[in-house]
Write a structure and sequence with these properties.
It is built from 34 helices and 12 strands. The chain is of the alpha/beta class. The chain has a 4-stranded parallel beta sheet with strand order 1-6-2-5. It has a 3-stranded antiparallel beta sheet with strand order 4-3-9, with no helix packed on it. It has a 3-stranded antiparallel beta sheet with strand order 10-12-11, with helices on one face. Helix 3 crosses helix 7 and helix 25 packs antiparallel against helix 26. The radius of gyration is 37 Å and the shape is elongated.
């Protein structure tokens, strides 16, 4: 046997036989998803190591099942609520590797650290399989990957794509090592990956890992458990930090496989490593990397975009579509690309079809899409549904075993169990599950909930909606957070992001105990509300911030309290700046807001500026705002209650004509929205008004009755009770709220009222009457003779409580309104 023949028949050395084929990838890469199966074919791999935590090993058969439709997501939830989320689409190289292994009968090994390993605590709790760029500034990294790999991949050999990806990983790793060094968590994970590769033995292996990590695995294999990474030696098997091993049955991490959606893969959904235009990336994958088919996919996308534009009411025809496609292809040619990519497509349609308008919603529908995944039949149930069922059982709430509805009365501020129940119900409500509906809320100071009532029931639709909401998370907290963020993003894209929505997001985040979203909401509220919110919106926000400051909402932390206090000061100043813009308002909500601002700031005066603005409103505002400003000044001790009382009496005295009576009604409405606080803090403020009602003649009383009643309709039931109590204390008597008059007499009173109003309408004089409904029999004074109208009955009829005349001697109808 010659030396050459002896060499040819000698067994290959183990190191040469087990040197793995390294495939560096970036997650959600159509170019690598196409190349991976062909690269694995060329390597004839017996074992495929995929960069996924070892906890997910049991889920791989279900992930590879041909009946599983992507996108889907692997998730690992910690006991403390942290979550690792791993979305996978058809254009994810990891999923392509898992599917290839199933078809070829090769073994797949999840080669990353188990999630229970402490090294994961230094990384983001919610994110994708890490490609090493999570901590970098990835606008630049994304652009570099696109220019050097994705854009040049169409028509390229798979090996050329692999080498380009590895070159990208080496460059990124060198840059990271130069600027700050490689994170300890990354080094620990890479050491674990090398140990897994070493355990493959003499079988042919391939490693599908992030391009950033691939240089650290070069040369790894049997008998080789260390590798050079830059200028330093990374420890091997014996010195590797944090070897988590294979997760055992007692692992604190609960894993699951759940359906996902294209919309959630988009970075704007909050997914930190999302991919722009997932539907377009799917089209690139389906084009098989052939430039001609990619141009066809661009033509289809532009055609669909034109259809969406026409559906929104604008014009976009065949000519514009042809021109947009031509421009996209020309841009690709000028840039030396084999086919247009997403950047060229967006630039072309913006230039040709934009025509000065935003194409955000239409582009989202075409490039992001609404595709949703589903699991193969027989996949173990996991995710939000089972988690919710277990949580309902733990909290002793109705579940599948107890489908009958139940009324719940919760006191979350007094009971830890009720607090947990309240948070869960709020979260499920934000997810749109339909499990429980609020029945009643009893507030205790500053709008904080003391008691809440719910009607909860487990129905078949709840189970179905849980599966739907499960695409946003495997716990109620994650699903609620994802739903709120997605709804907020859509509102921003469609131009519907109003201050009221910002306040609503802030409240929902607090009620659902979502601290990260709450901090984001506080930041956005500080940016949006001071310059854009109305006074009622500002006061809603201030009430919410006060509840946060006092710890009455479950999302409250020490940091939140500090930020809420600072934002409250900012919004209080903004509320004062809004006051001049209300001068001409005739909306009772604005009057209520002025009084509420005064009540809220009574203990924290905002200085001369508030004094000046309220004074200006009391002089030059609309009659409604004049009354509200007068009441607010009394509540702030800027004016005395005797001054307000004198003005009230003067308004009644001067209401001698239709215009005067209309002004009287609106001024009274403005004052009486503050009736409750006025009676509590300045009990004598309404005395002159009551005295006028008691002493005026019947003719004067009836002339002003509708104006007075219109003003007093602003009273809440509680305010009405307080006024009647004050009248009773003043007169030493209590009104009889019953109506003992015979039914026939009551009917005649009502008929006379209706006839009088009809007559005025026939003569075109209905405008002389208050815009409120006519006084009906239960509230009108009956006979009008002075001896028959007691002072108490007069005031009671004005306030709106039913009161009978003291002793009607004969049936007589009230005089028609003057």
């Amino acid at each position: 046997m010659t030396a050459h023949e002896e060499t040819a028949t000698r067994p290959t050395a183990p190191a040469a036989r087990t040197k793995p084929c390294l495939i560096g990838v970036r997650h959600h890469s159509p170019a690598l998803a196409l190349a991976v199966p062909r690269l694995l074919d060329a390597a004839d791999a017996e074992v495929v190591c995929v960069e996924l935590p070892a906890d997910f090993q049991p889920w791989l058969p279900y992930l590879a099942d041909p009946r599983t439709v992507a996108p889907v997501a692997l998730s690992g939830a910690y006991e403390d609520g942290r979550l690792h989320f791993y979305p996978l689409a058809d254009f994810s190289p990891e999923l392509a590797a898992v599917r290839w292994a199933r078809e070829r009968g090769a073994e797949v090994v999840c080669c990353d650290l188990p999630l229970a390993s402490p090294e994961w605590s230094s990384g983001p709790p919610y994110g994708p399989p890490d490609d090493g760029t999570a901590g970098t500034s990835d606008a630049g990294a994304d652009g570099l990957w696109h220019r050097t790999v994705e854009a040049l991949a169409p028509g390229s050999d798979p090996e050329a794509v692999r080498r380009a990806a590895l070159a990208f990983g080496r460059a990124l790793r060198h840059d990271t090592a130069t600027h700050g060094g490689i994170a300890a968590g990354d080094l620990a994970r890479e050491a674990h990956m090398r140990r897994v590769l070493a355990g493959v033995g003499r079988r042919r292996a391939a490693a599908v890992v992030g391009a950033f990590h691939a240089p650290a695995l070069a040369g790894a294999g049997a008998g080789d458990t260390s590798a050079k990474t830059g200028d330093e030696e990374t420890p091997g098997e014996e010195g590797a930090p944090g070897d988590g091993g294979t997760p055992g049955p007692g692992s604190p991490v609960v894993t699951s496989l759940v359906p996902y959606a294209f919309a959630l893969l988009d970075p704007r959904s909050g997914y930190p490593a999302g991919i722009h235009a997932p539907r377009w990336q799917q089209a690139l994958l389906e084009a098989g990397g052939e430039p001609g088919r990619i141009r066809d996919a661009a033509a289809r996308s532009i055609t669909e975009l034109c259809r969406e534009i026409r559906a929104s009411g604008d014009t976009a025809g065949t000519g514009e579509a042809i021109e947009a496609l031509r421009l996209a292809c020309d841009l690709a040619t000028l840039r030396g690309l084999p086919a247009p990519g997403r950047a060229e497509l967006v630039e072309a349609v913006t230039s040709v079809l934009g025509q000065g308008r935003s194409l955000g919603p239409e582009l989202g529908a075409v490039l992001v899409g609404t595709g949703r995944g589903h699991l193969a039949p027989g996949t173990p149930r996991s995710g939000l549904g089972p988690w919710t069922e277990a949580e309902l059982a733990a909290l002793r709430l109705p579940g599948p075993a107890d489908p009958a509805g139940r009324d719940l009365r919760l006191t979350p501020l007094r009971s830890a169990l009720d607090a947990r129940r309240e948070i869960l119900l709020q979260r499920l409500g934000e997810c749109g599950v339909g499990y429980a509906e609020p029945a009643e809320v009893t507030a205790a100071g500053e709008g904080s909930a003391l008691t809440t009532r719910w009607r909860a029931a487990w129905t078949p639709s709840v189970a179905a909606r849980l599966d739907l909401a499960g695409v946003r998370g495997v716990t109620a907290a994650q699903a609620a957070d994802g739903t709120l963020r997605e709804n907020h993003r859509r509102a921003a894209e469609t131009g519907l992001l109003t201050p009221a929505r910002v306040v609503a997001l802030l409240g929902a985040a607090a009620r659902c105990a979502l601290p990260d979203l709450l901090h984001d909401g506080l930041t956005e509220a500080g940016r949006v509300l001071p310059d854009a919110a109305t006074l009622p919106e500002l006061l809603d926000a201030l009430g919410l911030l006060e509840a946060l400051r006092r710890g009455h909402l479950p999302g409250t932390t020490a940091r939140v309290r500090v930020r809420a206090a600072r934002l409250a000061d900012l919004l209080s100043e903004a509320a004062v700046r809004v006051l001049p813009g209300l001068a001409g308002s005739d909306d009772p909500k604005d009057a209520v807001a002025v009084v509420t601002l005064a009540v809220r700031t009574a203990e924290d005066r905002l200085g001369l500026r508030l004094d000046r603005e309220l004074y200006a409103l009391s002089r030059t505002g609309s009659p409604l705002l004049q009354g509200a400003a007068q009441a607010a000044r009394v509540l702030l001790d800027l004016d005395g209650s005797d001054l307000l009382g004198a003005r009230l009496a003067g308004w009644v005295d001067t209401a001698t004509g239709p215009d005067g009576r209309r002004r009287l009604e609106r001024r009274l409405t403005g004052v009486l929205v503050a009736a409750g606080p006025l009676i509590e803090s300045a009990s004598t403020a309404l005395d002159p008004l009551i005295e006028r009602v008691e002493t005026m003649s019947d003719r004067a009383f009836l002339d002003r009755l509708y104006a007075l009643r219109g003003g007093f309709l602003a009273l809440t039931p509680e305010g009405r009770s307080r006024v009647l109590a004050a009248v009773s204390d003043r007169l030493g008597d209590r009104p009889d709220l019953r109506l003992p008059a015979p039914a026939e007499l009551v009917g005649r009173w009502s008929a006379a009222d209706a006839e009088g109003l009809a007559l005025l309408r026939d003569r075109g004089l209905a405008g002389l009457v208050s815009t409120q409904e006519p006084v009906h029999a239960g509230a009108a004074p009956g006979p009008t003779a002075p001896a028959e109208r007691s002072a108490l009955a007069s005031v009671a009829s004005v306030v709106g409580a039913p009161s009978a005349p003291s002793a009607p001697s004969a049936p007589s109808a009230p005089s028609a309104p003057s």
